[in-house]
Write the C-alpha cells for this entry.
Amino acid sequence: MRVAGSSRRRLLLFGLLLWLVVVLPLGLLVGSRWEPLLRWDRAVVDLLQPPAADSPAYQGVLSVVTTAGTTWFRLLVLLPVAIWACRTGRMRLGWLLVACATPIGFVTSGLKLIVGRERPDFPDPIYFSDSLSHPSGHASGVVTLVGLLLVAFLRLQPRRHRIATVIGGIVLVLAVGLTRMALGAHYPSDILAGFALGAGWVLVLTALFDVFPGPAQEQPRGDEAACEATTLSGRSTERGP
C-alpha cells in the first residue's frame, strides 16, 4: 500500500530529524573530543566490560546476541524476505529491502572514517577489530534489520500481535547495543548514533520508495485486482439497477 502524502512527508521528516538532531551532534561532539561526553562514555564501558571479561559463559551469550547486528546475518534474514516480496507482487517493498540492507554498512563505515574515533582500550580486551568506533555498525545494522522486518510484516499481522512484535524488535535492538558495550567494542555514544543512523535510514528510504510501514492492508497484485474487479462487476450486474 502506498503512503499517503502527509504520512510520507512525516516519515521523511522524522528520519532526517534523527540524523540532524542525534547523528550529526554526536559525531561533532565525539570528533571534537568533548570531554563531558568522553567521560560519560568511558564510565559506562568501564562498568559493563569487566564482568564480561571475567566470565567466559557471559562472553559466549554476548557473542551470540551481538550476531544480530552483523552484515551477514542481516542479509541472511532479509534476502528471503525480498524474494518473497517480489514473488507476491510487492515490488516496492522488495526494492526497499535491497536498497536498505547492504548500503547502510557503507554509510556507517564512511561516517567512521569522518569521525575517526578509536575503539575502547582495556588491559584485558575481549573484542578485537581494526575498524573505527563511531558510529556502531552493529547498532545501525540491527535497527535496519528490525525496521525493515516491521515494514514488511507488521501490517500483515493480527492487531493483537502487533504490540508484542514491536516490543520484541525493540528488545533485540537494545540487547545488541548492550552487547557491543559489554564486549568493550563501542562507547554508548557510538551505539546511540548507530541506532539513530539506522532508524533514519529506514524511515527516509521507506518514504522515498513509497512503502507504508504501518498496519495496513496490502494492495492486491494486478491480476488479483483485475479478478476482484471483474467479480464485483458481475455481482452488480446480477443484482440489476
Q: What stands out?
A: The chain has one domain: 5-216. Residues 5-31 form the longest helix (27 residues). Residues 215-241 have pLDDT under 50 and may be disordered.
